[in-house]
């Protein structure tokens, strides 16, 4: 990452609100809060347009999205930061936004006691983290959660991240001052100087290339995150709320190296992204995702292995594992998005990460990134998916206000059933069915 482009700045704490024009403080409309993703190193979808979902809800919801600090600005960690500042400030930005919504959303016609948080990728990971924040303390900030592709990267402790802080000190010259003055030194620097250090380096003991995809991530700080998220979910230390979680068929396809031509290339890619993986771990992974897998266009032979292994480890399994840990304490719904697109298939990426976004918000509302098929042979899936999401926001159940003619969405239970959202063979119809959870998780 270089210095941010024009219009991109750390001074980013802004909120967007879409509300029906006739809404008043007495309307008490359900509130949909969207947390954007970007791997905690950028914000790729924080400003998607919420106007269409408000309209298609019958003007019965209020939509909110916002920005938060990312990269070095949001997730620089050290015991020295803890002593003279805050850790995980990107997550604290999000939490502050939720408190702001609680306090002010009634002004826009929203119900502060009916807020559903929804995130995509790192935003979905953030949703899960807010559920276990402060050991599952219920601050009554949200009553439901939607997560598209929960992103759980390496989740280090503060002590495991001291090397990042030390690198920033060296690159800025602040290593020349006593430890007690290092934070003051960093704060005195121009933003451009700090931004010049806001890039990835190999994790300790790892080679390069490839560089880690996501270098700055939340840490286990002992406060907001008192323990590993999985541990907190296993210990039932979470806010018990209805949830709708899901993933795409080919979660890893846009992240895996297209030139992976051997098992060693796959092992290197995985090890460079997960710093605690040992050779025994990577050997086990390679035996689990053994060749041959079907070849994909425009990619080397072991690209499918890297894609599946990374996608399931980083997105699919976190989503399914969290669902399992929630138990029967709340309503749970899950999906797999399997809508194919000719351009994606020709590029060899299948149904990639977050491809459902255009159906949830409408293809005109995600910053010009929707494939053309959402306007032609895949357009039938848009009202179906959008209405399921709107229904969950309004009723904490995807079925109550679903699109007419669409089937009932059964909940997740001990069998681990998921709704499959896909288009039919005619390419103008949609087809919904159920599958069981992947065994490898």
TrEMBL record:
It comes from the Eukaryota. Pfam families: COesterase. One of its GO terms (molecular function) is carboxylic ester hydrolase activity. Its EC number is 3.1.1.-. The keyword Transcription regulation does not apply. InterPro entries: AB_hydrolase_fold (IPR029058), AChE-related_enzymes (IPR050654), CarbesteraseB (IPR002018), Carboxylesterase_B_AS (IPR019826), Carboxylesterase_B_CS (IPR019819). Keywords: Hydrolase. Gene3D superfamilies: alpha/beta hydrolase (3.40.50.1820). Residues 8-425 form the Carboxylesterase type B domain. It is an enzyme of class 3 (hydrolase). Belongs to the type-B carboxylesterase/lipase family. PANTHER family: ACETYLCHOLINESTERASE (PTHR43918), CARBOXYLIC ESTER HYDROLASE (PTHR43918:SF4). This is Carboxylic ester hydrolase. It comes from Podospora aff. communis PSN243.
């Amino acid at each position: 990452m270089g210095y941010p482009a024009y219009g991109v700045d750390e001074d980013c704490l802004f909120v967007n609100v879409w509300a029906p024009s006739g809404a008043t403080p007495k309307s008490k409309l359900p509130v949909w809060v969207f947390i954007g993703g970007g791997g905690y190193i950028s914000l790729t979808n924080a400003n998607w347009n919420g106007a269409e979902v408000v309209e298609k809800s019958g003007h019965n919801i209020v939509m909110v999205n916002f920005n938060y600090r990312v990269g070095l600005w949001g997730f620089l960690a050290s015991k020295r930061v803890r002593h003279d500042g805050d850790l995980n400030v990107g997550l604290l930005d999000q939490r502050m936004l939720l408190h702001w919504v609680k306090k002010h959303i009634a002004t826009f016609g929203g119900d502060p006691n009916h807020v559903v948080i929804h995130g995509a990728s790192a935003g979905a990971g953030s949703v899960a983290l807010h559920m276990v924040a402060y050991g599952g303390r219920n601050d009554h900030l949200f009553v439901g959660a939607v997560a598209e592709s929960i992103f759980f990267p390496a989740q280090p402790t503060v002590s495991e991240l001291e090397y990042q802080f030390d690198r920033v000190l060296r690159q800025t010259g602040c290593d020349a001052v006593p430890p007690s003055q290092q934070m003051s030194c960093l704060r005195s620097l121009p933003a451009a100087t700090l931004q010049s250090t806001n890039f990835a380096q190999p994790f300790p003991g790892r080679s390069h290339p490839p560089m880690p995809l996501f270098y700055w991530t939340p840490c286990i700080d002992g406060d907001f995150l008192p323990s590993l998220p999985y541990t907190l979910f296993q210990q039932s230390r979470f806010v018990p709320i209805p949830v709708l979680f899901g993933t795409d068929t080919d979660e890893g396809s846009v992240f895996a190296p297209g030139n992976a031509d051997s098992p060693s290339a796959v092992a290197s890619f995985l090890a460079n992204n997960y710093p605690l993986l040992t050779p025994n771990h990577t050997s086990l992974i390679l035996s689990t995702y053994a060749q041959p897998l079907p070849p994909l266009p425009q990619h080397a032979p072991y690209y499918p292995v890297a894609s599946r292994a990374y996608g399931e480890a980083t997105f699919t399994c976190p989503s399914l594992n969290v669902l399992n840990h929630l138990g029967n304490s709340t309503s749970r719904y899950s999906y797999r998005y399997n809508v194919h697109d000719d351009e994606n298939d020709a590029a060899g990426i299948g149904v990639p990460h977050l491809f459902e976004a255009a159906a949830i918000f409408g293809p005109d509302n995600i910053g010009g990134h929707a494939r053309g098929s959402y306007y032609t042979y895949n357009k039938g899936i848009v009202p179906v998916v959008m209405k399921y999401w709107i229904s969950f926001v309004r009723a904490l159940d995807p079925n109550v206000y679903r699109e007419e003619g669409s089937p009932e969405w059964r909940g997740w239970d001990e069998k681990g059933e998921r709704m499959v959202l896909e288009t039919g063979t005619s390419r103008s119809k949609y087809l919904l069915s159920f599958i069981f959870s992947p065994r490898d998780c």
